[in-house]
Amino acid sequence: MNIPYLDLKAVTAQHEEEIQRAVAEVVGSGWYLQGEAVKRFEQHFAEYIGTPYSIGVANGLDALTLTLKIYKTLGRIKEGAEVIVPANTFIATVLAITENGMKPVFVDVDEETLEMPAEAVEKAMNRQTGALMMVHLYGRCTYNEQVATLCQEHGILLIEDNAQAHGCKYQERKTGSLGNVGCHSFYPGKNLGALGDGGAVTTDDEELAETLRAMANYGFEKKYVARYQGRNSRLDEVQAAVLDVKLQYLDEDNRKRQDLARTYYNYIDNPLVRLPQKMDEKNNVYHIFPVFTEHRDELQTYLQKQGIQTLIHYPIPPHQQQCYATYNHLQLPVTEKLARQELSLPLNQVMTEAEARYVVSTINSFKKF
Ligand SMILES: Cc1ncc(COP(=O)(O)O)c(C=O)c1O
């Protein structure tokens, strides 16, 4: 068998006719930005996430960066404020903080839950703390009532980085609607992916929503009248039309992911390979299925030889990146261990049960060299 990590051509082929029709409609309309397709998708996405507002932006990093910029502009977060962030995240979460001249305060995650423990979050809070990034990494809901209460009590903004968790739930509410604001990425490989870059911000905060519309459009409150020093960060009509088609299938796609994850949990059985702590199914949309092993590189090579492609999310944590030299001295042992041991197995909506079984049996016969 030959199992790619993710075959985007096959993902698109699932609904190719509908996608082609939606794109053709935009092409034929002669209207490519700030039109009906974006409006329609924003409305549908807001309904899906369960917030009054959804605003399309150019990508997930902009969703996070502009959100913090607006909080600063509106005086809700101070210049140079501290922002609590899980050390185990994709670098974009941190870039949004530093881009705004704020200071990331890295909190190590728990090895079992892969979340920031509430006690560690509380310790990291002080009078300089302006916001907390709650990252639903790997598609796992990391919402924690204790942390949310701490944020409320201390007037700290709770920002959800929902780039990897579209459709994930906490009880009956969707991630992206649980904090003050949800930031989303529609990078092609995401659970809800465009055919290029795209992002969105979801919120019940009207002032934030209105300011973002202006900020992402040069800062214009109306044409050629700049209230803010903004930028150009818009979701385009073609991507919105594609996303609107794919949104209809997101729950079905996530169920397929959950089925495959069940197979991995039920049948992977190798003492050398640790699976992530299992969660209630609706709390995990399995954007990534990580496993952990001291023999990560050997396992990856072995799987590759057997035709199974895997990836590593992520080999270098943000605080150890060259661009963050001032944080390189930090010791965040769990995150650093995860970076050494993590391997992402293929898991996506176009993968078959037979392929998942092949991954299982191949992993089960992996031995130390
Ligand atoms: C957790 C997380 N945050 C932010 C982003 C940034 O999104 P984008 O690639 O759309 O800028 C990504 C994905 O790339 C991500 O995985």
Structure report:
The protein is α/β, with parallel strands linked by helices and 369 residues long. The protein folds into two domains: 8-247, Type I PLP-dependent aspartate aminotransferase-like (Major domain) (Aspartate Aminotransferase, domain 2); 250-364, Aspartate Aminotransferase, domain 1. The protein is 39% helix and 15% strand. The protein contains 13 helices and 13 strands. The strands form four sheets. A seven-stranded mixed sheet has the order 1-9-8-5-4-2-3, with helices on both faces. α2 (16-29) packs antiparallel against α9. The two termini are 23 Å apart. The model has no long low-confidence stretch (mean pLDDT 98). The structure holds pyridoxal-5'-phosphate.
Reported CATH architecture of the largest domain: 3-Layer(aba) Sandwich
Distance between the termini: 23 Å
β-strand number: 13
CATH class of the largest domain: Alpha Beta
CA radius of gyration: 21 Å
Helix content: 25-40%
The fold-level CATH name of the largest domain is Aspartate Aminotransferase, domain 2
* Structural domains: how many: 2
Strands in their spatial order, largest beta sheet: 1-9-8-5-4-2-3
Q: What is the structural class?
A: alpha/beta
How would you state the average pLDDT, rounded? Answer: 98
CATH superfamily of the largest domain: Type I PLP-dependent aspartate aminotransferase-like (Major domain)
Shape: globular
Q: How large a portion of the residues is in β-strands, by DSSP E?
A: 5-15%
Count of runs of 4 or more consecutive helical residues? 13
Report on the biggest sheet.
7 strands, mixed
Bound molecules: pyridoxal-5'-phosphate
Taking pLDDT < 50 over at least 5 consecutive residues as the criterion, the unreliable ranges are none
H/E topology pattern: HHHEHEHEHEHEEEEEHEEHHEHHEH
